[in-house]
Hints:
By secondary structure, this protein is of the alpha+beta class. It is 46% helix and 22% strand. Strand 3 and strand 4 (169-176) form a beta hairpin. Helix 4 (69-88) packs antiparallel against helix 5. The protein starts with a helix and ends with a strand.
Amino acid sequence: MKFSQYVFRIAGIYGLIVILPIYFIESDLFHGTLSPRADFYYGFAGVALAWQFAFFIIASDVVKYRLLMIPSVMEKVFYTSAVVVLFINNRLSTEILIFAGMDIIFSALFVMAFIKTKQNLTKIDHLGIAVPELEKFIELYKTMGFTYEGREKVDEQKVETAFFKVGESHLELLAATHPDSAIAKFIKKNNGKGGIAHVAIGVTGIQARLDELKAKGFQLIDEKPQLGAHGSKIAFIHPKSTGGVLLELCEKP
Length: 253
C-alpha cells in the first residue's frame, strides 16, 4: 500500500511543479507571441492540472480509488504516445521527448501500483495464543525451538505480545495488561488457562475488505481497523459469523 501511495503522491507533486508554470510562460513557448488557440492551450493545462489533484485523491486511499488508476495510466500513455509520434514526424524537439520520458516512467509505476493494490487474502499471518504469564511461555516456546522475534506492548488492545517465526507465518503470544481486556476475559472463561485466541489472516486493503464482509452480512467486532503490533492495521470478525472461530484481518504497514 505504501508503494502505491508514494507513487501517486509523488506523481501529483511532480505534475504541479511542471504544469503550474504553463499558465505564466505562454509567450515564451510561442517565441514572444501568444498561442493561436488559447482555448486548447489553457484547456490542456487545466485538464492536466485536474489530473494531478486526482492523483492526490488516489493516494489518500489506493484501494478505494483503485479503478481510477486505469484512466491515470491511459492519461500518461496517450500523452507520451502523441509525443513520440510528433517527434518521429519532426514536429517536436528531442528535449520534449526526453521530458516526456518521466510520464512513461509514471505510467509503468501506475501499472505496478494497480497490481499491488489488488485486494487479496494473502496468507495465515499468525495464530494468536492467549497465555496467563508471558515470560514463562516465551521461555517455553524458545525451548521448543521456535525463533523468537521480540515482544511489544499494544496499549490499544490492552495486551503485551511476543512473536515467534514459523516459516512464513508467526505464533503470537498474548498476555493481558488490563483485567478488562479481551485476553483477560478469554483466560478467565478458560478457567485460568491459555489457548488459541484467534486466527489472523493477512490482507491488503483492510477497510475495503471490512466493508465487503459487512455488506455480505458478516458480524464485525471492528468496522474500522485498529492499531495492532508492529504498526499493523487489524480488525476482528465475530465468531458467530465464522463458525465459532475469532478471525482477525491483519494488514502490514
